[in-house]
Write a structure and sequence with these properties.
Keywords: Hydrolase, Protease. One of its GO terms (molecular function) is peptidase activity. The protein has 11 helices and 22 strands. By secondary structure, it is α/β, with parallel strands linked by helices. It has 2 domains: about 260 residues, TIM Barrel (Alpha-Beta Barrel); about 80 residues, Elongation Factor Tu (Ef-tu), domain 3, CATH 2.40.30. An 8-stranded parallel β-barrel has the order 1-2-3-4-5-6-7-11, surrounded by 5 helices. An 8-stranded antiparallel sheet has the order 17-16-22-13-14-21-18-19. Helix 1 packs parallel to helix 9 and helix 3 crosses helix 4. The two termini are about 25 Å apart. About 40% of the residues are buried.
Length: about 425
């Protein structure tokens, strides 16, 4: 499949937006096909559990993205308390000097500060602001917001109506984890652990196992659904809208967003590459767009819950969000190695071990461009000493694997389970 180059005018109307939980993930997202990435600093972001970016990493990340013609949006999307506002002006000034292409915000007070202190900084309204109707969208447009990240609770018809009534960019999540709380504004974590999800420190309490206990039967725990691991009735399925990209584009969505700043680089590379291929396919032949079986097969190789279309088709019932009885993640592949480059003297891939593997195994090679390749591990050599090894058991050990052609950096090796 032809991969359209960024900057091509045919791509100007659609954007693939990928998460960047740290500098390594930013580079993976860029190389595997994102048009833009979103990230958070060490403060003011709703993903405190991600590694996030210190000042130096943010400067390097934005520079790397811009060299590849990829935009960077910085999340400042906490619901701020008074003390959060003290350091905000200096942080906004840094974001602007770093060259960010926009800022993702949910708090009206923070938005007002940005409009006053940094009026040229584009504002994207976070999904946490739960924009679910055209009147709200029009309000934010009048205030100066340039893009609205739509609430996940919207149907296609509702998106069409909003698009027809406002002249503002619309962004929608198309893939990744969802939250059982309304537009992600959950109180469970704060109530149960003291960790405030609305200030970036969610403990993911909804993913825990829950049972019912009857008042007069202490110690007797009853699962809501029969399952020996417990029940996960508050744990949502994962969103996958690969099939509905044309409908979303026709409804007025111009930015397709992937969730996952806390996901692995293997997850990110796989999902970004598939959605890149899907968007390119749609742009090349809108009328003939079809979801290829190999795309769906690839999406099963990353850690995920059962996939759902969420509320997009107007489904308000349990099929939209409630996870399968076990609530467990499933995956069909294990990420075992990250390629750092190629050694032409030895004819070998330079690989950083990320999971145990050994000589004789068959692995799959995932590359930023092109089809996956199946390879046989015929030998493993320690990168530092050159000694032959039967296995690569040590985390992040640098090794070399014989291979018949150069392999680009950030390619990945995985075992099909």
């Amino acid at each position: 499949m032809l991969h359209l180059k960024r900057g091509d005018p045919t791509l100007s109307s659609l954007e693939l937006l990928a998460p960047a939980g740290d500098l390594e993930k930013l580079k993976v997202a860029v190389l595997y096909g994102a048009d833009a990435v979103y990230l958070g600093g060490r403060q003011f972001s709703l993903r405190a559990g991600a590694a996030n970016f210190d000042d130096r990493d943010m400067l390097e990340g934005i520079s790397f993205a811009h060299r590849h013609k990829v935009k960077v949006y910085v999340a400042v999307n906490i619901y701020a308390h008074n003390e959060d506002l003290v350091n905000l002006p200096a942080y906004l000034d840094f974001i602007v000097r770093a060259g960010a292409d926009g800022v993702i915000v949910s708090d009206p007070g923070v938005i007002e500060m940005i409009l006053k202190l940094q009026p040229r900084l584009p504002i994207h309204l976070s999904t946490q602001a739960n924009t679910t109707n055209w009147a709200s969208a029009a309000f934010w447009q009048r205030l100066g917001v340039q893009r609205i990240v739509l609430a996940r609770e919207l149907s296609l018809e509702e998106i069409r109506t909003i698009s027809s009534r406002v002249d503002v960019q619309l962004e929608a999540f198309v893939h990744g984890a969802m939250c059982m709380a309304y537009s992600g504004r959950c109180l469970l974590s704060n109530f149960m652990t003291g960790r405030d999800a609305n200030r970036g420190d969610c403990a993911q309490s909804c993913r825990w196992r829950y049972y019912l206990v009857e008042e007069k039967r202490p110690g007797q725990y009853f699962p809501v659904e029969e399952d020996n691991r417990g029940t996960y009735f508050m744990s949502s399925k994962d969103l996958c809208l690969l099939e509905y990209l044309p409908q979303l584009a026709q409804a007025g969505v111009t930015s397709f967003k992937i969730e996952g700043r806390m996901k692995s680089i293997h997850y990110l590379a796989t999902v970004v590459k598939i959605y890149r291929q899907a968007i390119d396919s749609y742009l090349q032949d809108p009328a003939g767009y079809q979801v290829l079986p190999q795309w769906l097969a690839e999406l099963t190789k990353v850690s995920h819950r059962a996939y759902t279309t969420g509320f997009l088709l107007g489904d308000r019932g349990e099929t939209a969000t409630v996870a399968a009885a076990s609530g467990n993640y499933c995956r069909l592949a294990t990420f075992v190695g990250l390629v750092h480059g190629y050694n032409p003297q030895t004819g070998s891939m330079i690989v950083e071990q990320r999971n145990n593997f050994k000589v004789g195994e068959t692995l799959e090679l995932l590359m930023p461009q092109g089809d996956n390749r199946i390879i046989k591990v015929t030998a493993i050599y320690d990168r530092e000493t050159g000694a032959a090894m039967e296995a690569a058991p040590h985390p992040q050990q640098m090794i070399e694997l014989p291979f018949d052609q150069p392999v680009p950096a950030m390619s990945m090796l995985r075992r099909i389970d």
